[in-house]
Design goal:
There is one protein chain. By secondary structure, this protein is an alpha+beta fold. The protein is built from 4 helices and 4 strands; from the N terminus they run αααββββα. α2 runs antiparallel to α3. The protein is elongated.
Length: about 190
């Protein structure tokens, strides 16, 4: 049995070296694909990688169902695709706050959800979200960018009407129309 331990050790050592070098190459490849982006986008993609690790960890401990795992992994993939697409189109090191929802999740971001077949790129909804597009990542996700306060103020300053126009000429929702209820103020 001692005569077999030498070749066995050699094969084990060789397999370990190959495995480590393969991991090293994979890490460098992943890092080089993200290195085309600036620090902001790289940080966002790192955040998405961390989110995937959390979902993977929760799944490995059987804390979540297989369906929940699939949906969240697909959502992370869709967010990554849209972030990379936006950065490559604009050339800016900037990613807006993104929301990725399926049709059955529209109620989580809209009070009165519309039909996705009517959505046009760059159309603004509820004075909060700009529709960016649809990504198929295991299932269809509709991606929206949350408007920041400066963007909303600029739209109001343009005359109180939303003038966001998509490439095909479709106009979004006027600024004066809101789909949220007014906040109730209770006198003291």
């Amino acid at each position: 049995m001692c005569s077999q331990s030498g070749p066995t050790r050699f094969l084990l050592l060789l397999a370990t070296v190959l495995l480590c070098s393969g991991l090293s190459v994979a890490q460098r490849t992943g890092a080089s694909s993200d290195s085309e982006f600036g620090p902001v986008v790289t940080a966002y993609l790192g955040y998405l990688n961390n989110e995937q690790e959390v979902v993977d960890d929760r799944a490995s401990r059987r804390e979540i169902s297989a369906a929940y795992y699939r949906r969240n992994s697909n959502r992370i993939h869709a967010l990554r695709q849209m972030a990379v697409r936006l950065v490559r189109q604009s050339g800016n090191d900037y990613v807006p706050e993104l929301e990725a929802v399926t049709t059955d999740e529209f109620g989580t971001i809209f009070e009165r959800p519309s039909k996705p077949t009517t959505f046009r790129p760059n159309e603004v909804f509820a004075n909060k979200f700009r529709f960016l597009g649809q990504v198929h990542a295991g299932e269809n996700f509709y991606l929206f960018a949350r408007l920041d306060p400066y963007e909303q103020a600029e739209l109001i300053q343009r005359g109180g009407k939303l003038t966001t126009v998509s490439e095909d000429g479709a106009k979004g929702q006027p600024v004066g129309q809101t789909s949220t209820r007014a906040r109730r103020v209770v006198p003291r």
